[in-house]
Design goal:
The protein is mainly α. The protein is 72% helix and 5% strand. The protein has a 6-stranded mixed β-sheet with strand order 2-3-1-4-5-6, with helices on both faces.
Length: 734
Amino acid sequence: MINKVNENETNMIYDNLITHVQGLIEMVDVETGDESVKYAQKKVKDILVQLSEKIREEYSSLKRNTEWKRFTIALYGETNAGKSTVIEILRLLLKEETKQQEQEEFKKIEKRYHISEENFNAIRKIIMDSDQEIKTIQERIAQQKIISDMEIGDKREEVERLYKEVQHKKKIRSRSSFFKRCLYFFKNDPLKAKWKESRKEYICLQEKYEKIVNDLNNKIFDIRKNRNKAIAKENVMKEHCKKLQKFEDGRIIGDGSTDFTRSNKIYSFKIETMEFDLIDVPGIEGNEESVQGTILEAVQKAHVVFYVTRKPAAPQKGDGQEGILEKIKRHLGAQTEVWTIFNQSIINPIRFERELVDEDELKSLDNMHKVIENQLGKEHYRGEIILSAYPAFLGEAECLIPGSSNITRKRKFMEKYSREDLLNLTKLRDFVKLLGQEIVNNWQEKIIISNYNKAIDTLSVAVEKINLIQVQEYKPLVEKLIKTTRDSRNQIDNSFDTLKYNLQMVKSDIVETFRSNVRNEIYVKIDEDIDNDTFEYYLKESIEMRKDKLQNDFMEKTQNHLEDFRDELNEISRKTEKYMQDILGDAGKCSKENGIDIDLSIDIDNGIDTWGAVVSIIGGVTLLLSATNPWGLILGGIAVVVGFIKSLRGLFQHSYRREQQRKTADNNIRKISCSIEENIEKNLHRLYPDLKRKMELVKAEISKPVEVIKYIEDKLEKTRKELIQITWSIKGGE
């Protein structure tokens, strides 16, 4: 199936995928009267719309960037890993056309302006020799200054001393007589003569050293004149060298700055009859936002990717942000063939006195293999290539600017090794062989497989995206919400059972209180030895009075319990809603982009009007005691007893009458209490089903968020399965 795939067929993958996703969107967008379903449908639709837009973006990007005619390799990695150096040495070794053109231009400029390393060195020698001569002369001047300062200083002191002596002697003579002064005038003064001779020597000594310094300064002047001429020549040569910069070998090699390579640079190569392109990709750890599109374009165009690194250690995951390892997965996940180039950094020829990689580095590279393979898959990751590009580049470079650091380093390497030695020591010869025999070989098939894989990867990403939303968010969310709902429903059931129990206790308490109070009151009257008519009157009065009290007590206590029940329902609903929101908050902290934005509010009023239930139950209480007119039992029962007592009035004493009155009271109180209890029970049992139905509405209201989430999860699962089916159908049902 793979070898039959062409550009048009690959494009159809995207067309079919977009059409199918659009169909799913339309499927969930049907009209419904259920607000909760409407809400869930909107969430599914939002997710699928985002997915569809993403697929369209991927489709457009791949359609724009996918290369079908030329086999393309992207050199991908961190800044300063040596991607450009690898490309540059390959340009030199494989005689890349633009490289040859650049070298020709370089040599033309060299010849035109007589630029050479020898001329440059000769000029530099003149300048350096001049600097040394000037330095030597300046040192002689400094020495002469020290000597002259000492000699001239001594002579100056002598002159000053003699002068002082002459002046002193002159002062003494000025005090002598006129005759003596006249004799002194005509007489020679040896002291004065000595002073004059010393002063003459002082002046001669100054002139002598001035001449020496002037002669030395004139030499410096002449030397500087020649030096300036050399510098002028050097500057002219440097200006000419600037014309060489855009043609020199190694021009594309970065300077270590993160933004040196800002755009994709493509270089075309040929090994025997096999043509291919290399793309120099910007560094992935720099200001990636500014080059994100550039990096994506390169990896989408490439059929093979070389991940270039100077570190034998495995790329690291990010700490709180996307690390290099995650970037590799994101950028290269769709690639069918990925290699790692470990570019050993070597700038000193002494380094080649030992193996290119040591034992520790080999272990690190083995670990790197496992880590990257785990990220990309065994079918995509091919292994590591070990080389050292820079020394090989120095060995092959012919067009280097005189005076540059590259030409200095080249000299050091070439003093120790030949060009062929460097190619072998750096493993560049092996790398070129690998390129021709394995990587570029069968390039037509690799183009098809690579582009096919990228197309299918979009489907896989879509499936993975949905699966990720399901597994990490919706499924756990459903489970948590189901548990929360189940717990809340159980709490409601328990509250209802508690309510029933409490109402039963209210019923028992008020009937027992009624029974006890009426009995106590009538017994007090019976003990007063009342007649039967009076007994009948008091019994009726006590029952009538206690009837109202019973009704009021029942209504008050029942209302209190129902209010408690209402509060419990509201509290359960409130806590359930809050807990659901907490669950959703935890699930959606990093997932807003995935469509997690579910309204979990619970409207208790939509489930049960508790006050209405209270009114219904309490309203039934007013009918409780009159439903079957239990008070008629009292009248009938008393009349029978009283008639029986009157017929035996003469046969029994007062104590017997009191006993019979008590029996009659107990009998009537018992009967009416039972009747009251039965009627309360009947009314309660009539009300319980209605209350329970309304409770089920509360449960249903609490369960709505679960149903919404389940609906979304089910639709996503269906979408995921259908996308998988599309994938398999595109692959030919393999």
